[in-house]
């Protein structure tokens, strides 16, 4: 058995998974795998090609023509779509909504999950997404289900967009979050749910530092169990 460690973080949109996972990875010197960024890159590919999220035939065909890979520059993940670094193009609300919609398609999931599993088999990784603990890394050493109320998640997203100078509506953001939650939890393939052996962390009343410290403590406990 190789001495590789995996941490899985699942949870709904806007729960802070990426921020938390990135910080924990840095402290543990793990590779951070932002699976959401991979789905966003695929969504960007579909948007550029004018493909509807509901057109399964075109989605399957286009997914086969999309090459999404990850690279790391100075420890920072870069998302590459068909040879182009799209890391700065995939964080819009439009791309996020499209990513949630197209992730229901089996062809999209299968293509990206294969890459995710391969990465985790050879590197110490912390991976976040919707189905990491349940499907992608069912044998992860530590599984976290990170959530927060829709109101709190909407306020966080609203503040982020305002800081970037973008006009937005708090009410619309919360409605979009609720809609994406329903979509993610009720999709046919790999729906969002808490793995049976995952630790539930509700960050509604926690600071980012408190969440990070809690995960680090939980992982330290898992290491003791494994040694």
Automatic annotation (TrEMBL):
Q: Which residues form the signal peptide?
A: none
What InterPro entries is this protein classified in? Cytidylate_kin, Cytidylate_kinase_dom, P-loop_NTPase
Subcellular location(s): the record lists:
Cytoplasm
The chemistry this enzyme catalyses reads: dCMP + ATP = dCDP + ADP; CMP + ATP = CDP + ADP
* Flavoprotein as UniProt keyword: no
Which SUPFAM superfamilies would you find in this protein's record? P-loop containing nucleoside triphosphate hydrolases
Chief location bin: cytoplasm
Q: Which residues bind ATP per the record? A: 11-19
What keywords tag this UniProt record?
ATP-binding, Cytoplasm, Kinase, Nucleotide-binding, Transferase
Q: What top-level branch of life does the organism fall under?
A: Bacteria
- In short, the EC number is 2.7.4.25
Molecular functions (GO terms): kinase activity
Give the matching Pfam families: Cytidylate_kin
Keyword Protein biosynthesis on this protein?
no
Q: Which residues form the Cytidylate kinase domain?
A: 7-220
Q: State the CDD domains in the record.
A: CMPK
Q: Which family does it belong to?
A: Belongs to the cytidylate kinase family. Type 1 subfamily.
Q: Which PANTHER family match?
A: CYTIDYLATE KINASE, CYTIDYLATE KINASE/PANTOATE-BETA-ALANINE LIGASE
Q: What is this protein called?
A: Cytidylate kinase
Where does this protein come from, organism-wise? Clostridium boliviensis
From the UniProt record, report the name of the gene that encodes this protein: cmk
């Amino acid at each position: 058995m190789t001495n590789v460690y995996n941490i899985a973080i699942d949870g709904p949109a806007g729960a802070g998974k990426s921020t938390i996972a990135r910080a924990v990875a840095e402290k543990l010197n793990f590779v951070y795998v932002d699976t959401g960024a991979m789905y966003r890159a695929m969504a960007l590919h579909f948007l550029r090609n004018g493909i509807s999220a509901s057109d399964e035939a075109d989605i399957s065909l286009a997914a086969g023509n999309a090459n999404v890979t990850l690279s790391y520059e100075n420890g920072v993940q870069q998302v590459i779509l068909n040879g182009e670094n799209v890391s700065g193009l995939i964080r819009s609300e439009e791309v996020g909504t499209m990513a949630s919609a197209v992730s229901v398609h089996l062809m999209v999931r299968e293509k990206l999950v294969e890459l995710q599993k391969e990465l985790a088999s050879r590197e110490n990784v912390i991976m976040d997404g919707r189905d990491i603990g349940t499907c992608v890394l069912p044998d992860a050493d530590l599984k976290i289900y990170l959530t927060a109320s829709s109101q709190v998640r909407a306020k966080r997203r609203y503040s982020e967009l305002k800081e970037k100078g973008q006009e937005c509506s708090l009410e619309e953001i919360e409605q979009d979050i609720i809609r994406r939650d329903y979509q993610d939890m009720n999709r046919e393939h790999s729906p969002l749910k808490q793995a049976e052996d995952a630790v539930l962390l509700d960050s509604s009343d926690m600071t980012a530092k408190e969440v990070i410290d809690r995960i680090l403590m939980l992982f330290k406990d898992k290491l003791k169990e494994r040694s």
